[in-house]
Amino acid sequence: MAKQNDIGKLLREWMDLAARRSIRDVVLYCREKGLSMSQFSVLCRLRFRGGCSVSEIAEDAGISRAAASQLAERLVQLDLVVRSEAPYDRRVKLLVLTEKAQALLRESDAAREKWIDELVRNLTPEERTVGAAGIRALTDRARQLRKEP
Questions:
Q1: Mean per-residue pLDDT pooled into runs of 10, the chain (149 residues)
Q2: Regarding beta strands 81-86 and 89-97, do their DSSP bridges make them parallel or antiparallel, or are they unpaired?
Q3: Contact indicator for 46, 54 with CB cutoff of 8 Å
Q4: What are the angstrom distances between the C-alpha of 134 and each of 9, 61, 118?
Q5: 92/45 Cα distance (integer angstroms)
Q6: Which CATH number covers residue 127?
Q7: Farthest-apart Cα atoms in the chain, separation
Q8: How is 44-103 classified by DSSP, letter by letter?
Q9: pLDDT value of residue 35
Q10: Domain enclosing residue 139, as ranges
Q11: Which residues of 22-48 are buried (b: 16+ CB within 10 A; e: fewer)?
Q12: What is the pLDDT of residue 5?
């Protein structure tokens, strides 16, 4: 039976490898599309948390409101976000993803996931079975530990 420390070490090694590969693929994708990592980060934020104000972008990114405003303006110019009125206050403008941005993010996911698909293709049937069981157990336990709402 594997020891808890051994599993932890292996999992950290896997996470490090997967994170480095994922980040590398995102950086290359952004470079190919002419996006900065800051711009891509804002698009991801809007994708996962919905529309938000320039002030929220500034706070999330740890940058000044002026820098966030310039970042937002560039995304508007690229037709990746639109400004719309907040339903709770017409004076507040929310940034919302365009269909072009949503398509770009889906394409980025596919580019990043290509490596996983190649990895799985190179596993033997037995490795796939054992790996699937282990990953399923880790995913289930991680969901149980999650503190998010």
A1: 81 93 91 94 92 91 92 95 86 91 95 90 95 93 78
A2: antiparallel
A3: no
A4: 15, 35, 19
A5: 18
A6: 1.10.10.10
A7: 61
A8: HHHHHH--B-HHHHHHHHT--HHHHHHHHHHHHHTTSEEEEEETTEEEEEEEEE-HHHHH
A9: 95
A10: 4-145
A11: eeebbeebbeeeebeebbbbbbebbee
A12: 80
| Domain count within the chain | 1
**Residue-level pLDDT at 87:** 81
Residue 27's contacts (CB-CB under 8 Å, 6 or more residues apart) are: 37
Which residue do the tokens 């929310």 mark?
94
pLDDT at residue number 1: 63
Confidence at residue 27, expressed as pLDDT on a 0 to 100 scale: 92
Kind plus residue range of the DSSP H or E element containing 108: helix 99-121
Lookup: tokens for 46: 């809007």
123: DSSP letter: S
Whole-angstrom Cα distance, residue 30 to residue 67?
Answer: 20
Per-residue pLDDT at 90: 82
Contact 128, 111 (CB under 8 A): no
